[in-house]
Design goal:
single chain, 303 residues, 6-stranded mixed sheet, 5-stranded mixed sheet, 14 strands, globular
């Protein structure tokens, strides 16, 4: 795989946190995405190890799912840095609208943060001495953005494209369009000059054509039966919650499934509220069989 530009560093994180991309040049240090709240101290330690006594000047969030912006608050407190978010999220962040933000809907958490500016599709940014085009990437999240450098031939794809798929198509859980938008994003990526993709999760990769084929096939599979997307979403949200909490009782997880809007919407696509208990038991059994968690009596434990 071709080397990344010297001004870029990728912090590949575990699945609870998104990857972070650090740009450093003679004028500014900028971090793309900040991981999950419980990993915020680790994010800060990674930055300090790389930056030394130099401050972080700017945070840029590709989108505002909790695993991409959960470190914002601590980094803002530490560095008093600028923060740029997708422009379509400005109002809900300014008002800290917990219903519009996804944290409560997914049973996740994020400490309140502010912002100093916005970015949007069509903008050009200079990061690490390199020009980057901001590209809209709805599908996984209606507000998501990507960054592409034609000169460096690098794409920061967030959760629009991974080496073996893409992030959950959340809009479809609540009756909004997401599959068509994800397909359009994949077609957009196919037309870009890209040698290296830095995904939101997983290692950077160079076989873009293969990744696009896998993503397209997966999208076909999910779109053929939207219940498949709902089942995948609920499993992902269960595993994420357990990675954060480490363990939960079955009853606590059932209560969360019925209270968190995105989890409840996914469960409702798979059956009536009266069947949620049986559905959750079935999914936990499947996740245990796959090695994602283990069950000890009434307690469910993250692996």
């Amino acid at each position: 795989m071709n080397a990344l530009p010297e001004s870029m560093t990728v912090f590949e994180r575990g699945w609870l946190s998104s990857n972070n991309v650090l740009f450093v040049d003679s004028e500014r240090a900028t971090l793309i995405d900040t991981g999950y709240a419980s990993h915020a101290q680790q994010t800060l330690a990674l930055l300090r190890q790389k930056l030394g006594t130099r401050p972080l000047d700017t945070i840029i969030n590709t989108h505002l799912h909790s695993d991409h912006c959960g470190g914002n608050a601590l980094l803002q407190q530490t560095y008093a840095c600028e923060t740029l978010i997708p422009s379509s999220e400005a109002r809900v962040v300014r008002e800290w609208d917990e219903d519009a933000l996804t944290f409560r809907a997914t049973g996740q958490r994020c400490e309140r943060f502010g912002f100093t500016g916005t970015i949007d599709n069509g903008m050009t940014l200079t990061l690490g001495g390199i020009e980057w085009n901001v590209l809209g990437a709805p599908g996984h999240d209606p507000h998501s953005l990507m960054l592409h450098s034609p000169d460096a031939r690098v794409l920061i794809s967030a959760d629009a494209l991974w080496e073996n798929g893409f992030g959950v198509i959340f809009p479809e859980l609540e009756g909004e369009s997401g599959f068509a938008e994800e397909r359009a994003v994949l077609e957009l990526i196919a037309g870009l000059d890209v040698d290296i993709v830095i995904p939101g999760h997983g290692a950077p990769f160079s076989d873009v054509a293969r990744a696009l084929d896998i993503a397209s096939s997966r999208l076909d599979y999910l779109q053929a039966d939207p219940a498949r997307n709902a089942k995948n979403a609920l499993k992902v949200l269960i595993v994420f919650k357990l990675l954060d909490a480490r363990s939960m009782t079955f009853e606590a997880l059932l209560a969360l499934t019925q209270q968190a809007r995105a989890m409840r919407a996914a469960a409702d696509m798979l059956g009536s509220p009266q069947t949620h208990r049986a559905l959750l038991a079935k999914l936990i059994g499947e996740l245990e069989k796959g090695g994602a968690l283990k069950v000890n009596g009434d307690t469910i434990i993250s692996n």
